[in-house]
Amino acid sequence: MSDKKYYSIVTKKFNLKTSHEEWLIESQNIYNKVLYFYYCLFLDHPEIHGASGQNALRLMEQITIVGRDKKPVSDPLPWKGIPLYFRRAAINAAIAAAKSFLARDIQEEPTSTFSSGVTLYKGMYRELTSQSVQIKVYDGEEWRWICCRLYGNILPDNVLCMSPRLVFREKRIELHVPVKYQVQDGRTLKERVQSDLKICTVQFTGGNTIAVCCILDTYANVEKVLFIPGGREYRHRCCMLWNKIEASRKARGNVRQDHADWKYRQKWKHINEDLAHQVSSRIVEFCCENKGKVILLPKYSRDYSHIIMGAVESGSPIRVSYQIRRQLWYKAWKDGILVVETEVYGIGSKCAVCGEDIRKHGELYKCVQGHQGNRWVNSSKNLGKNFLYKIGKQMR
Ligand SMILES: [Zn+2]
To answer: Is 217 in a helix, a strand, or coil?
Structure first.
């Protein structure tokens, strides 16, 4: 294995509470004013347009900030005492926005206002823990430190936290903290295949079993199987919610009210997110326990996926499989596992032992030669075989 280090970045989102919300908002306002000032300045100075990010930043500071030599500058920044990293964050955001405007044909007018969240670089925050953080804010006259409470998430031990970002939502303020994990195994698929590779196949079903996972060795022999249940419970939760929506609509005389429906849509979103989170975590955990190095998913074309999604009813856990897949990609990489998709051709219709056609009876299957067992385990083996055949061909 090479010495190259691999990382995975995950954003931890916290809700932020403070008794000085107005100062945070004031800081955001002044940030966006500084951003707008540099945005206009950049557009007015075509000689800077070709400069790289770092150079453009330096050139813009030279014409706006009085240096040690006390020489007057051509376009002084109209606000005094803006902290260095706060200013630089705004300049970088301004350069990016201005360059993107210059590169686009469709946007005719430059942006006239900004309402960006604020990235807190060095010197703008301190003492960050899972429960609190101190932030430097502008109170309208001067800069001061305030203590804010954080809740709703946890910062893991022994990770590197990168610059957090203040995000202003309609009714609350969030702090987004990017967390950098070192990935233990960053090998490519090619490198992994050369050693004794263990694969964890995952298939999604619409029954009580949400996902079937099989650990396969390099000959597609099944070593372990995990059925992740919860489909029935999920369906039940969905039904309860729909009944509530219906009752609430009836109570309103069947009048559509987006505001009232919003609450239920949020709840529905939470149920799905919660399930996707639990199932994807369990899959990665199972793969790790059994030393799997690749998670293998069935690959469906976009058209085919649309057909499947159109055919399954709305309480089916299959509908959450998109979210589970998406979460698997980043959760697996964090633990050094690659996620790969492979062709599904024939996996559900052929016997994995002899290749003959099979007949299904519920969860079971039987082939003409008499091989029988669980149909999902059979299709997992076929999926693994398709994959091993494909990479075998590619690696040769
Ligand atoms: Zn057979």
So the answer is: coil
Q: pTM (2 decimals)? A: 0.70
C-alpha 215 to ligand 1 mean position (Å): 20
In sequence order, the β-bridge partners of residue 342 are: 298
Distance 349 CA to ligand 1 centre (A): 11
List of domains in the chain:
6-16+122-183 (no CATH), 22-118 (no CATH), 189-231+273-395 (3.30.420.140)
The CB-based long-range contact list for 127-130 (8 Å cut-off, 24+ gap) reads 128/155, 128/161, 128/164, 128/177, 129/155, 130/14, 130/154, 130/155
Angle at 88 between CA 84 and CA 93, to 5 degrees: 155
Confidence band, pLDDT 50/70/90 cuts, at residue 107:
low
- Ligand 1 center from residue 304 Cα (angstroms): 28
Going from the Cα of 357 to the center of ligand 1, the distance in angstroms, rounded, reads: 8
141 against 285, higher pLDDT:
285
C-alpha of residue 213 to centroid of ligand 1, in Å:
21
Average pLDDT, rounded, for the chain: 88
**pLDDT over 80 at 104, yes or no:** no
* Share of residues in the chain with pLDDT > 90 (%): 47
Higher-confidence position of 100 and 135: 135
Tell me the per-residue pLDDT of 327-362, one tens digit each, with 9 for 90 and over. Answer: 998 899 888 899 999 988 889 999 999 999 999 998
Which helix (H) or strand (E) covers residue 147, if one does? strand 143-151
Distance from the alpha carbon of residue 380 to the mean position of ligand 1, in angstroms: 15
Contact 77, 34 (CB under 8 A): yes
C-alpha of residue 359 to centroid of ligand 1, in Å:
10
Q: How far is the CA of 321 from the centre of ligand 1 (A)?
A: 30
Whole-number Å distance, alpha carbon 367 to ligand 1 midpoint, is 5
CB atoms under 10 Å from CB of 388, counted, come to 20
Residues facing residue 226 across a β-bridge: 213
